[in-house]
Amino acid sequence: MAETALGAAQWVVCKALAPVADGVLEAWAASRTFGLNIQALRAELEKVQATLEIAATKELPGLATEKMLQKLWDSAHNAEDLLDELDYFRIHDELHGTYDAADQPGDGVLRDLACDARHTIKDLGKLINCFPWQRAELQQRSCGDSFSASDTNQEVSGCMSSLGKLLLSSCSPHPHVRGDEDRGNAQEEPMPEFNRADFSQRMRDTVEQLKLMRNDVKDILQTCGPRTVLDIAQRRATTTPQSSEPKLYGRDHVMNNSIHDITEGQYCDKGLTVLPVIGPGGMGKTTMIQHIYNNQQVQNHFPVRIWICVSFNFNLGKVLEQIKEDTLTVEGENGCSTTQELIEHRLKHKRFLLVLDDIWQFNDVDDWKKLLLILGKSQEKGSMILVTTRQKEIADQVKKSADPKELNGLEPGEFKKLFLVYVFDVEKCPGDKRFLLDTGDKIMGKLKGSPLAAKTVGRLLRTDPSLAHWRKVLNSKQWAKQTNGIMLALELSYGFLPFHLQRCFSYSALFPEDYRFRSRELISLWIGLDILTPSDQNPTFEGIGLSILNDLVIHGFFREYKTDGGLRYVMHDLLHELALKVASHDCLRFRLPDVGSVEIKPSTRHLSISIENLGEYNGQKLKRELEKLKTRLKVEHLQTLMLFGA
């Protein structure tokens, strides 16, 4: 994940440079006689940015580099906070007429500055709301944006505001800024006096901190070689037609229907058919296709069978060469001058099955059309192409007269059989091991129906069939450390995303598991976190937010879920765990009764809390829980607090 940490650090540095990019803040700082400090901070940030650009060209090592980049990320965040705070005072001067520095005088200046002020306060974390989308709604109303999020607020109990007030009193570093719930009931406290000496010293300290971290990163980069352009999928083994799983669990219905349709049903008398199989990593797509490929009925139906593991980029030249190698020579092919002509000649009178496993993207979608044109010249009816992919966009591009087969988690009964096979080699728990079943059921609940999860965690449990070991696995994070296969499968998908999609996906971890999102809830959260950047193509927050959400659906990170109340979006539980993992540096989510066992990092900026069984809390019990949380919340820059009641 060092590449992810690098991307995050680059993004924060760009944000930190934003307040000084137009020169307005520097001009104001010069008037307050500490402009040289601003210039030094800007210069150091630009050096950090250059260092990170060099890092992007290097082959980064593992965990140590990731930690170093995260420290640089923290330092850049501190610089961002400081510059935003200075910009806040600058805007305050302008709004109150103490400094006339507006670039464009006119009636709209104060309105624009008010919008900027709210944006700046939010970035600083001076204003912590219970719901980020409420803050986004206020911001957009003030700025005249057409997007409204008023109907996205989650229904929670009135005691939530008490928790918000308590945490605000302990975390907000600026006492003159109040929570929204207090604004109508109290007069605004006086603006604190601007302390030039204090800010000068803080800027010097920040410059020194950035310089120290930058030099440490430079030292590491000197030992790193240049990054080679390798397929992301080279981190996983190439698949073959041979399955390591002798029995297929939980997919019998899908597999048998597919075999019937292919050999004697709807596809057997048609021209070339493409059938996509789609699903998240670890759901058993390849395993099911292996069982179809090796089924005796399928073998009898297809004289020619070809298996190609595409793994990431679809390369037409390589696919054609593989087809050439896997087909037998026929009479008259000596007259073929190209690989394309040779394949057309060999398959002209043959029914064939072609498997293209694990397609991630097309560099040129026309290559796919060319392949279909070549293979479609076979005069035999019923030829098939089976495609596996994690991405809906790929499935939509390749499908040809057949709707995709979508695989999700296994049904609980079938999953339990598979899990027990990996642990005990039998589908039922042996009589002398039944004392493990209760703990085993709880562990299975963590695995969310993933066949890959059953395999990796089952291997962990079978090493020691004792209750103490199983309870240790259940109550610790040991199983997660041993299930690299699960996270690797998901991280491959995550690593493939552009950074702006990674960022938006990761912050969805702040919502509870199995949460059914409205589009406006997600978009308003992203706006509140200031991670959306409108463009010429999408000039509004709503437009860019919907575009990102659609991209995450296409890449398989969210599923659309239709309800009577409209369209919702859901995330597979394992993907939610992935989001928690990649966002763990600055995001934390937990349930209120568990506060004593949760590690709260000083770098936490975004906090999400669920209060379970809210109706069971009386005043004293809730107060004790809140006080317990308050004593443990030692973060310096809390920006977001989300509360959920159940």
TrEMBL record:
Pfam families: NB-ARC, Rx_N, WHD_DRP. Keywords: Leucine-rich repeat, Nucleotide-binding, Plant defense, Repeat. Residues 30-91 form the Disease resistance N-terminal domain. One of its GO terms (molecular function) is ADP binding. Belongs to the disease resistance NB-LRR family. Residues 510-579 form the Disease resistance protein winged helix domain. This is AAA+ ATPase domain-containing protein.
